[in-house]
């Protein structure tokens, strides 16, 4: 019986098939939970919306751009210092947030005038920035404000300015994943091919599906540079708007997060004949294999081998120190999408951890399939659990650590399951050889933190009384 029986399935019976226990020797179809469906009314999803996927995951890591939200002020909050895609442009894109701040009267009379004024005011405030992206939020999409027409008017009035319009309101799909798709296609359809780059190497790539979380992109860029490879653009971490308009001139697209960015790779292959190569920057072995693949493609295998040798020599001893202390610890891997299958096997093979549960928040069936096929038998596979299910899973599985986002992470912390942030990281970058050691170190620090020696209340056993306004032991 692969389906996992949650107590809360009594309340929300549709959730029953969203969780399975991986059993030995069963075929994969029986072992797959349902996923990537509309959120069930009555359950509290941790998912983001399609606007969030377009703007906050993919759009805003672009560094030299005013990112403007056309909608109420609440929508863009996530871009204001709460994100983690740093840049070498003094983090311009996460320092400021821009919005038209639509109000009730705009819903009735429209907000095109406000949009135009806000665009001009934003460019006036930052005269060195000549590029802008406008994101349609639910409110402006519902009333049908024509953001493209306004952008066109501005570009006619201000010839040194270029504007990209993204049409991915929150309701455009079941989760952030729909927004990834929309912005991929709109970018390649409306912007790629407009700029001719300067080619400075015989080996030219786009690095795609990489968002420079705490510097991941910079670690990888350094390897590419040492191999003599020119990175024409990064889609989109630390990426420049105009570099990304020149993507059509690369010889190869290197794809890291297939969940969020395979769409643009596939169009670039079809339209411009640029091949796609999927790589994996997490873990020593996947990283080495990726560098070898790239080296092989360009006929520069020796350069790849030199980096692998140097980096392994430098970082292996530190990794070994952590592995000796992490061996056998139980971990729940609950990231958003593709990190599940990027990590599921390497945390076991390279860090010695036992994966007791895998999940995706918004992954497609294929993401879960890859994740579950790479983790050990006995693991609980679950799609987008609500808070009650999270508490139950933590209580039953008793993991030593959960790697997840801050929403389930905070729930886990309340029942004293150590948590590290799988999205924003704790002290990343986590990619590359040095990044993998940082990942091991953060896991070690979380598990061995002395704070866990303190006595605590187990809320899963109803030991809580809050009637005096604070939590006490019964
Ligand atoms: Fe790709 Fe991502 Fe992810 Fe993703 Fe994300 Fe992210 Fe993630 Mo958070 S693009 S699918 S929508 S690897 S923001 S950088 S960490 S859920 S697993």
Automatic annotation (TrEMBL):
This is nitrogenase. It is an enzyme of class 1 (oxidoreductase). NCBIfam families: alt_nitrog_alph (TIGR01284), ANFD (TIGR01861), N2-ase-Ialpha (TIGR01862). Transmembrane segments: none annotated. Residues 49-447 form the Nitrogenase/oxidoreductase component domain. It catalyses: N2 + 8 reduced [2Fe-2S]-[ferredoxin] + 16 ATP + 16 H2O = H2 + 8 oxidized [2Fe-2S]-[ferredoxin] + 2 NH4(+) + 16 ADP + 16 phosphate + 6 H(+). Its EC number is 1.18.6.1. Its cofactor is [8Fe-7S] cluster. It holds the Pfam family Oxidored_nitro. InterPro entries: Nase/OxRdtase_comp1 (IPR000510), Nase_asu (IPR005974), Nase_comp1_asu (IPR010143), Nase_comp1_CS (IPR000318), Nase_Fe-Fe_asu (IPR011290). The keyword Cytoplasm does not apply. The lineage of its organism: Bacteria, Bacillati, Bacillota, Negativicutes, Veillonellales. One of its GO terms (molecular function) is ATP binding. The keyword ATP-binding applies. Belongs to the NifD/NifK/NifE/NifN family. Keywords: ATP-binding, Iron, Iron-sulfur, Metal-binding, Nitrogen fixation, Nucleotide-binding, Oxidoreductase.
């Amino acid at each position: 019986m692969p389906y996992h029986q949650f107590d809360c399935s009594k309340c929300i019976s549709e959730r029953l098939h969203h969780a399975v226990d991986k059993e030995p020797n069963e075929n994969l179809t029986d072992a797959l939970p349902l996923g990537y469906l509309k959120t069930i009314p009555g359950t509290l999803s941790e998912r983001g919306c399609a606007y969030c996927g377009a703007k906050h995951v993919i759009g805003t890591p672009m560094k030299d751009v005013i990112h403007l939200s056309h909608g109420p002020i609440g929508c863009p909050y996530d871009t204001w210092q709460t994100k983690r895609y740093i840049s070498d442009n003094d983090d311009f894109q996460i320092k400021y947030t821009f919005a038209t701040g639509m109000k009730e009267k705009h819903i009735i009379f429209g907000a095109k005038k406000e949009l135009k004024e806000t665009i001009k005011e934003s460019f006036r405030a930052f005269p060195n920035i000549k590029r802008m992206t406008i994101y349609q939020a639910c409110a402006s999409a519902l009333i049908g404000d024509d953001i493209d027409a306004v952008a066109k008017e501005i570009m006619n009035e201000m010839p040194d300015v270029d504007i990209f319009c993204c049409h991915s309101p929150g309701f455009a799909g079941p989760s952030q994943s729909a927004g990834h798709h929309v912005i991929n296609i709109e970018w390649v359809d409306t912007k790629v091919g407009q700029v001719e780059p300067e080619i400075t190497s015989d080996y030219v790539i786009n690095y795609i599906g990489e968002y420079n979380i705490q510097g991941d992109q910079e670690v990888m860029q350094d390897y590419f540079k040492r191999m003599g490879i020119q990175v024409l653009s990064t889609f989109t971490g630390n990426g420049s708007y105009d570099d990304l308009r020149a993507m059509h001139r690369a010889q190869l697209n290197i794809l890291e997060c297939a969940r969020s960015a395979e769409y643009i790779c596939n169009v670039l292959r079809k339209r411009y004949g640029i091949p796609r190569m999927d790589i994996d920057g997490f873990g020593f072995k996947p990283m080495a294999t990726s560098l070898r693949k790239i080296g092989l493609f360009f006929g520069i295998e020796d350069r790849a081998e030199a980096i692998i040798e140097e980096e392994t020599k430098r970082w292996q001893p530190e990794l070994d120190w952590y592995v000796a202390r992490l061996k056998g610890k139980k971990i729940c891997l609950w990231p958003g999408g593709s990190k599940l299958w990027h990590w599921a096997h390497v945390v076991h093979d390279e860090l010695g951890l036992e994966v007791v549960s895998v999940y995706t928040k918004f992954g497609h069936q294929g993401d879960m399939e890859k994740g579950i096929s790479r983790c050990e038998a006995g693991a609980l596979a679950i799609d987008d659990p609500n808070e009650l299910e999270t508490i139950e899973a933590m209580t039953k599985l008793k993991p030593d650590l959960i790697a997840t986002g801050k929403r389930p992470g905070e729930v886990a912390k309340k029942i004293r399951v150590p948590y590290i942030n799988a999205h924003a990281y704790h002290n990343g970058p986590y990619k590359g050889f040095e990044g993998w050691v940082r990942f091991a170190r953060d896991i070690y620090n979380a598990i061995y933190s002395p704070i866990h020696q303190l006595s605590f209340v187990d809320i899963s056993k109803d030991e809580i009384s809050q009637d005096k306004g604070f939590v006490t032991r019964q």
